[in-house]
Amino acid sequence: MAGLATAGYAWASPSESFIEINGDVFDDWEICRTRAFGEDGFYELTETTFRPVIAFESLGKNADQAYRLGEQFADEYPDPIQRAEAIFSFVRDRVRYTTDIDQFGHEEFAQNADELAAIIEGGRAGYGDCEDSAVLLAVMYKGAGYRSAIIIGEEHTASMVYLPDYDKAPVLFEVNEEPGWVWAEATGRNNPLGWTAKEYLDVTLAAYEITEEAIVPAEPTAPPLTAVSQTGGGGGGGGFPTRYAFFGIILLLWFIPSLFRRKKRRRVR
Q: What pTM, to 2 d.p., does this model score?
């Protein structure tokens, strides 16, 4: 084991140190930041399940800067629609999309929400890729009083916020047969809240609603994969996704078809 002393990791908070083991980087919670899959991966991704454990590093008793940022937005924006849009714009405008290999020298390196929030609150521009923006958004939405989720699709991850009265979104989604979820895609500089790329419409995806949970790596006793489907509007895409190449492994989702029934409903308002 060797400690990482490079400046690229010096700002990390609340994880105060990182260690490198066999080429992978681990934080204080023994969560691997350079790998999404496995019981110690930052998404605990397996062939049939995923659990975004990295988000739990910023919730509950571990809540810090990102959660407090969400609370500040709740105080400033009493209207839930304006608040949701303001949080989305905050992350979209202050986190500049950058690949992990360019920023950290690793093909994959996930930042937790507080690490990215600390940079932004320090007056600097934040840099990250899709999972960094997704985790920050999901935690800030929780701090602001919303339900939020992290979603994975082929070669991508994003966040969702439960906002059933949001009529500006071209399409709403249904998570675990509950309509009213809005896609939050902050990696594009001009994306509005609710914008969804065509390749993620009319396909089956997997989502995990984040709550305060234990960080200790543990293999789930039951698959927590949740069906996500379009409930109106949009189009394009197509095809049942059988792999999530972004994470470098095959997801054998066809073994649990009951969790992935496609819905054909009108948008719920």
A: 0.79
Confidence check: pLDDT of 254 > 50 = no
Cα gap 131→31, rounded to integer Å: 15
**What distance in Å separates the CA atoms of residue 46 and residue 251, rounded to the nearest whole number?**
7
Output phi, psi for 253, to 5 deg: -70, -20
Query: What pLDDT shows up at residue 241?
Result: 30
Q: Distance between CA 135 and CA 158 in Å, rounded?
A: 8
C-alpha dihedral sign at 31, 33, 34, 38: positive
> What residues does each domain of the chain span?
53-259
Query: Are 43 and 117 spatial neighbours (Cβ–Cβ below 8 Å)?
Result: no
Q: List, for residues 160-204, the tens digit of each pLDDT value.
A: 999 999 999 999 999 888 999 999 999 988 999 999 998 888 888
List, for residues 31-84, the tens digit of each pLDDT value. Answer: 999 999 999 999 999 888 899 999 999 999 999 999 999 999 999 999 999 999
Q: Does CATH place domain 53-259 in 3.90.800?
A: no
* Nearest of 48, 14, 17, 21 to residue 35 by alpha carbon: 21
Degrees (nearest 5) of the Cα angle 108, 240, 131? 25
